Amino acid sequence: MDLLTQIAGSVFSLGSVAAMLGASLLGVLIGALPGLNPVMAIALLLPLTYSMEPLIALGMVAGIYNGSMYGGAIPAILMRIPGTPAAIATTFDGFPMTQRGEAARALKIACWSSAIGGTASALALMTMGPLLARATLHFGPAEYFWIAMFGMASIGVLVGDDALKGLMAAVLGLLLGTVGLDNLSGIPRYTFGEPWLLGGLDLVVILVGLYALPPVIALAEQADLKGLSAAALKLGRARLGWAEIRGLIPTWLRSSFIGIGVGILPGAGGNIAAFLSYSAAKSASPDPDSFGKGNPQGVAAAECGNNADNAASMIPALALGIPGNVVAALVLGALLIHGLQPGPQLFHQNPALVGGFMAQMLITSLLILLVGGAAATRVFAQVQRLPGVLMVPMILVLMAVGVYVINGRVVDLWVMFAAGLAGYVLEKLAFPLAPVVLGLILGPMAEQSVRRALLISRGDATELLTRPISAVIAVATLALILWPILRAWQRRRHGAKAP
Amino acid sequence: MTARGQDMILGLLFAGLGLAAAWQATGYRGASGTYPQVLGLSLAGLGLLLALKSLWRGARVPRPLVDHPGRVAVTVAIGAGYLALVPVLGFYAASALVAVVLPVALGFRRPLYTLLAAAGFMAVVWLVFTGLLAKPLPTGFWSGW
């Protein structure tokens, strides 16, 4: 009871409420601007959170995440341009509704669906997160090592089209994580005599570069000189009646389950949740042919599914230290900034903080109903009148100021720029960036765990495999790595058999 | 260049990077060196595997690295120039300059709109970072004034 009172006190403090509300508004705004996405926004936000209370920082992350997932639906419905990758499925029926003069109704359905999906996801996080953390409480260094390996293998193999590139990205991230003073021996590694490298590569500097610069260059490539006309942004009025809400409830329930399931799986993102939810709604519909032609169920399924992925992706991130997607990886980054190590111990050492963050995910999901209402959506839609080329230098300036204030070093600006350019080229080469980030986050934990396990066992490496739980996770990791190889081999065998 | 050629080069680059990292790690004592050596050799192995896989079964389809080389070059050059100018001109002067110059370089020809947007944006940045958060930012040659 004391804990609940403590959580309520900190979550409903003035600072936390202002952070959630302000960030939700900002999130919808960012989601509404094609080219900007929640990952970029949270990466830009992280440097500012150094001097903040952890719960205020996390409240801002929660607000931006949930808000931008809904915001992505605004241009998807009005212009057939998904504001975020997760809003692609929203365009299928959202834009045809706009063409029919039902833009306001489509936006209202998207708003309600986002709020319901996000709320269901937050409730799943609040119930399943602590259970998973309790189950993993007795893990030792060997188990932690294999959990880190499993997380990286799953992100490496499941993200992107080529598992080999994913694994390379994970190993690159682990290697980058070794730069700086070795925590256990104090030996400097890969510092090349540069004092600023002794502390290692700053996670946030790399994150801002990797996730903010490539979209900026993409915006510059598009060179949008006009923005949208005021006439195109005129919305009518719409009210959702009880009959319509009742008709959407089965879709909301189905999509929430799908989104939560996808969110828990490491490597799958909101776009996959939206597509699966959309397909399921279409399959279950008595009139599947109406999908893609402005069926409100399609908008509801896609938006509910992509928001139901949000908080669920935090379940493995908070309980095991394995993020379900890139935003969850950024949340881990936010925790590390405040000296908090994600994983089972987090729930026991900082229950008020974890509980507070889970409550913030719930509250910011409900806040969508407030900030995503018809009047607010009309205002947010206006940001699409801003020509894209004006956004390019603005984001560049925000990146620079955000990175500079972390350590007060100009060299960090160049590290960020180099990371961004590398990220841009690697993305074009279909090289996934999420495993690099995860390697950078989990690398130090993996190294310390394996070395501690070997110290405890006096150098006996079999200790890593003989404990039952670590053996199970090790086998699962190996199976995950071998799975794409077996699949490719099977595909080739079937191909050879075919006439 | 085709995707096959790009992936072969990427694989060889990573193999070289992994080998260099492993070789560098031989200079670190005990377990401090073993871990990065293992990682370096793994990266080299995976890189070679990617190069070989691309050689045998790589897609011979073109995969452009940039869609509009001119715009990318302009953005990267002005971005790098901006970072170089931050310690010289100070954060606010350099930022105001890039906020005006970059849209023009990308073909935006509405000077008043550009100036107003840059001024409004810089005012918000100043309010947040200097007014509200009181973060010290590079002042450049203005510090001598």
Automatic annotation (TrEMBL), chain A:
Pfam family, one: TctA
TM region positions: 12-33, 39-65, 109-132, 144-160, 167-184, 196-220, 317-337, 357-376, 388-407, 413-443, 464-486
InterPro entries: DUF112_TM
Domain DUF112 residues, every copy: 18-438
Keyword Membrane assigned: yes
Coiled-coil regions listed in the entry: none
Keyword Transmembrane helix attributed: yes
Keywords attached to this entry: Membrane, Transmembrane, Transmembrane helix
Protein name: C4-dicarboxylate ABC transporter permease
Organism of provenance: Pararhodobacter aggregans
Automatic annotation (TrEMBL), chain B:
Membrane listed as a keyword: yes
DUF1468 domain: residues covered: 9-138
Signal sequence coordinates: none
Superkingdom of this protein's organism: Bacteria
TM stretches of this protein: 34-52, 73-106, 112-134
Annotated InterPro entries: DUF1468
Coiled coil: none
UniProt keyword terms in alphabetical order: Membrane, Transmembrane, Transmembrane helix
Entry protein name: Tripartite tricarboxylate transporter TctB family protein
